[in-house]
Design a protein that fits this description.
With 115 residues, this protein is mainly β. Helices cover 0% and strands 54% of the residues. It has no helices and eleven strands. Strand 9 and strand 10 form a beta hairpin.
């Protein structure tokens, strides 16, 4: 059984920081490309950051310099460090794992940025 479980979301003031985690099970984690997506109410899903099986990272322009994606293959976990949070970062953040044509999604974790 494949599971991706996100955690670490919450309510944060603008300018604050948060670290999200996504713990995977049921897959050979080290060979999967991992991506964080987010979806705000009434908007389409948006790619936030990706880290491939070799550790190469890529980011959406809107989060460059503020977000950092990383992975710990020994813990089967991918992280998203979020700094300098803005209200427009408010969304449900989802974890995605892809290997070839096999893909899996987590249930999401809510990030709310508000004063």
């Amino acid at each position: 059984q494949v599971q991706l479980v996100e955690s670490g979301g919450g309510l944060v003031q603008p300018g604050g920081s948060l670290k999200l985690s996504c713990a995977a099970s049921g897959i050979i984690f080290r060979i999967y490309d991992m991506t964080w997506y987010r979806q705000a109410p009434g908007k389409q899903r948006e790619l936030v950051a990706t880290i491939n099986s070799g550790g190469t990272t890529n980011y959406a322009d809107s989060v460059k310099g503020r977000f950092t994606i990383s992975r710990d293959n020994a813990k089967n976990t991918v992280y998203l460090q979020i700094n300098s949070l803005k209200p427009e970062d408010t969304a449900i953040y989802y974890c995605n794992a892809v290997f070839f044509k096999n893909g899996y999604w987590g249930q999401g974790t809510q990030v709310t940025v508000s004063s």
